[in-house]
Amino acid sequence: MRMGKAGNNKLLKEINETSLLELIRINKQVSKAGLAQITGLSPTACGTIVTNLLDKGYIREAGIGTSKGGRRPILYELTPGSYFSIGVDIDIDYIRFILMDITGQVEFKDRISCDFARAASESIRLMEEKISEIIKIHNIEHDRLLGVGVSVPGMIDNLTHEIIFAPNLGWERVNLEHMMDRIGDFPIYVDNEAMCSALCENWIGCCMDERDFVCINMKSGIGSSIFAAGNLYRGCCGSAGEIGHITVDQNGPRCACGNYGCLEALVSARSMVEKAQKLVRQGLITDFEDIEAITVDEIFRLAREGNESARVILVEAAGYLGLAIANLINTVNPSKIVLGKELAKFSEDIVDHLKSIASAKALKYPASRVQVVVSKIGEDTSALGAAIIPVKKLFGYRL
Questions:
Q1: Is residue 2 part of a domain?
Q2: Of 6, 212, 331, 348, which is most buried, counting CB atoms within 10 Å of its CB?
Q3: 99 & 14 share domain
């Protein structure tokens, strides 16, 4: 939300505590006179709103500003540690938790192991126990908790926020918001994990100044999210960005969604582990006594150490992903594409290979205008994005 100058009559009808709070966030430190100048409101009107924000604890005095003639003004800023949100990121083998305050400062993070070959209700019980523990340990009053955001690797309905299908979790038609509403009198927000990563990159990451970008994540599956004209693009029912289920090889392996040859079936961490296990059985990789103990991190390690078979797995994955990125460049026309989560572990030469495939297969002009970059935040993006959802709501954003 960015506000420009306009007449008092119009702004007096529209302005509220939320919009002034957002202006204070954007400007870091600002005086009542500064707010009045930005909004066009009178200093008296701004003073009334600032007083209300002080009373509620959202803001505090930050010091004295420079005089432009007359008394030096008092500056105001967001109050660290005043209000909080919790972000939860679900995947097939863990649940990640982050506690954030309204300034974006991470106060706490943790993750717990979880086997999702169980009912959704059991997984929800584990989440509720951990959330209650975080609230208790950090002594957070419930009226100071803005809400809990939950990131899920699956398709979320735009209107009902129901999880329509999360194939890697084995969940279908799960109303997580409703099932978790007994935990406390604060809102629960459920969103797709790639959407959460995009919110994170746009709020505190490498896309703060981007209006048209795409985030691609690899973990249990492949997910992506699209920012178009400064907003998340969700499509008519919330499935926009399901790049993992683009068919890249019609004769490829069966995907968890039921189709064959999906990008996710060829590029996800799970598919790369399955390829490594096959190479172990063939005797091409000899570094593992326990074939079931192979992880994608071990594949990255072997590739770094010069194991050619492990490197081939990554090169093949990067090639398929490069093809999918070329299609995104042609159809979505982003200015930036961000590679997140496990993709951020690709070595520089593997990323260069991915870029070269994308550049060769995409239309030349849009390909020349896009940057393909690796996320600097890495594995925490979805949990951070989930925590950002309640914070953005406070500042008046629609998601």
A1: no
A2: 212
A3: no
Which residue type occupies 129?
A: E
Same structural domain for residues 113 and 72?
no
pTM: 0.88
Residue 166 clears pLDDT 90, i.e. is over it: no
Alpha helices in 209-268 (DSSP H): 263-267
Query: Domain total for the chain?
Result: 3
**1 within a domain of the structure (yes/no):** no
Tell me: the pLDDT tens digits for 185-195? 889 999 999 99
Q: What does the alpha-carbon distance between residue 61 and residue 77 come to, in Å, rounded to a whole number?
A: 7
- pLDDT reading at 337 higher than 90: yes
Rounded CA-CA distance 173/169 in Å is 12
Q: What is the CATH number of the domain that holds 21?
A: 1.10.10.10
| Both structure tokens of 121 | 């209700």
Dist CA 19 CA 139 (whole Å) = 29
Sheet holding 155-156, edge to edge: 155-156, 163-166, 171-174
